What does this fold into?
Amino acid sequence: MMAHLPNRSPDFIEEAIRSIMAAKKGVKRKEPILKKISHTDIIPQKKGNGQLRIEYLINEATGEVVTYSMAYINDSICSVDNGRVIGFDNAHGEHHKHVMGQYIPVEFESFAKTMKLFEDQWHQHLAKRKSK
It folds into this structure.
């Protein structure tokens, strides 16, 4: 009689196979310890309205930022892309930015430079809005 496993995702099955193979070889896998950083600021109406949201996962052993997402969200300005007016992230295996619903691939140098670019573009956006 053959035992049946419950339905699992292909990722779960691949991970299980890798674990079994590593155990057979006597190799112990060491998973990185990831720390999630998440910060949201609500922006008052007189200072631009909306919210700034910055989230990233950092590998505590190496200091490497594994995934990131930074966005200025204001659905009174942008009704598409969940209200994301300006944003940068590396979801979908590619570094890119979002501008009013447009998806634009970008060159990545470092997390710090991307954060600075995001801040600069957000401030430019606010200055442009105030001048109208």
